[in-house]
Every structure is written in C-alpha cells, then in structure tokens.
Amino acid sequence: MNNSDIDTQFDELALQQYIEEIGIRVRSLRAKRGMTRKSLSKHSDVSERYLAQLETGKANITLSVLWRVAEAFDIPFSEIIPDQCRDGINPLFASFVSSLTEEQQNSALQLLKRHFASSLASGHGVALVGLRGAGKTTLGQLLAKEMNVRFIRLTALIEELANMSIGEILDLGGQKKFRRIEAQALEYVLNLNEPVILETGGSLVSQTESFKLLLDNFFSVWIKASPEEHLSRVMDQGDTRPMAGLKEAIEDLKLILEERESGYKLSDYTLDTTGRTESECLAELKKTAGAFLH
C-alpha cells in the first residue's frame, strides 16, 4: 500500500468521523430542546427516516438539510457544525467574548493567560513567530548563544523528519501533508526535556491547533518589521524573488500581515525590529524572554 492509499483511507475515516460528530450534535441539540424526532421532522421538513440516519452517522448529508435542521432548532447554521475551538466553552462566556472588539479580546486573553497559566515559566522555552525577514533567525541564534540553549528552526526540523525539502513536501502532498509533518515536528520539540528557542514558519499562525499548542507551551514573541524592511532584508539574504515587482510584493506582504496580524498579536510579547540595530533588539528580547530559558 502506497502513501496515497494510506492518505485516502485516512481522509475517508476522518470524513466518516466528522459525519458521526454532526449526528451526535443534532441528537444532543434535539435532546436539550426536548424535541422528538417526529417534531423535528415536522419543523424542518426532513423525514424522520433521514433524521434517524443523520443522528447515527449514516446519512449522505447535504448543506440544505443541515440548514433546515438548524432553522428548526432556531440556531445559527454554524452551531450545528462541530468546532473544536468552540465546543466545550460556556455559551455565556462565548457570547460575552464575541461582544468584545478584537483588541479587547486580545487583552482579555493575555489577562486570562497570566492569571491561569502559572506553569508557563517552567515550560519549553521561547518561540519566535512572524514573517521571514523580521529578524527571527538572527535574534534567535544570538540569544541562544548567550543563554547557552539550543536554537531550532521548525522548517529545518520539518525537512529533516520528512527527508525532503519544504518545496518537495508541498509538491508531493500539498498543504495537508506539510501541516501534518509540521505538527509532528512541533510535537518532537515539545517532547525535548529542555528549554529551547524555537523559530517557527510565518504561516504556522494559520494552523489553529498547532498555533494554540505553541502558545500554550512557550513564551511567544512576535518579531515584526515594516513590509519594506521585510523585503529589504530578504533581498540582502540573496533571495530576490519578492523584488521582481516591488510594488506588488509590498502590497502582497501588507495583505499577508493584515490576515495574520490577529494571530501574531496573541503572542505574549511583540518586538518591533524596524529601524533598530541587532544589539538593541537582542537586549530587549533577552530582558523579556530570558527568564523562560532557565
């Protein structure tokens, strides 16, 4: 059996599990409301037989059916879909948080983390997040040398575990394959019995579960810089690809930063390297994160 067959089987099992989770959710919602299957059928215009198949994970689910069931429950459509980030959260708490602005939510999260995550200081070290060219590698290596700890680039570890380059991973298996190996690499670092400085790829923020795992186990620092400085540093490193169309490249970077900023802001600390020397940034990073490397 080749890797493609294994991935296909995995996808089928994952899909079936997801269908079963939807069924469990519908059954739970019906029970909470004290509705019989007959009553739900009447108000959703979905047959009792189909509802029975849906609740046992045997139905060929369509969006239109789920929409009608959600309408019968008088809930938003999104609530009928399983969501690991939402499920298990007190509804009143979720409602209150959703009423806050994005900035207020970030502030509330930091307060909660400081209040409840008392074990953070004895965690796995420091994680540097942000886009390429902000200074993660340079500052991470310098701080690692000063603190006498290991510096790990997550992308390099991914290539080592996969025995192929990032480009080859993406070509052969796409984003799904890459994210799977990325999660394995992060787990590998977490299993090391020592504090380290971990440099992550810029897109890790888009992978909710992995990014949460990172934030929960490391003191996280967003290393940021202006789009123009990002491009200038990348070019200095010998990569001229982003400079092919300077205006377009800067606009693309601004868009990427806009889309990722809300995630990067969840970091414990933000260090802006724009227009600053390495020694200035290193001193600030050491002062802020040094305590988490003992």
Molecular structure report:
This protein is α/β, with parallel strands linked by helices and 294 residues long. 60% of the residues lie in helices and 8% in strands. It has 13 helices and five strands. The chain has helices at 3-32, 37-44, 48-55, 63-73, 91-98, 102-116, 136-147, 154-162, 166-190, 208-217, 227-236, 246-264, 278-289; strands spanning 125-129, 150-153, 196-199, 219-224, 269-272. A five-stranded parallel β-sheet has the order 2-3-1-4-5, with helices on both faces. Helix 8 packs across helix 9 (166-190). The chain is elongated, with a radius of gyration of 23 Å. The two termini are 46 Å apart. The model has no long low-confidence stretch (mean pLDDT 84).
Q: Taking strands numbered 1, 2, ... along the chain, how are they ordered across the largest sheet?
A: 2-3-1-4-5
| Helical content class | 55-70%
> In total, how many beta strands?
5
N to C succession of SSEs: HHHHHHEHEHHEHEHHEH
Q: Which value, in Å, is the CA radius of gyration?
A: 23 Å
Q: Label the overall shape.
A: elongated
Give the number of helices. 13
β content, as a range?
5-15%
Biggest beta sheet attributes: 5 strands, parallel
Q: What distance separates the N and C termini?
A: 46 Å
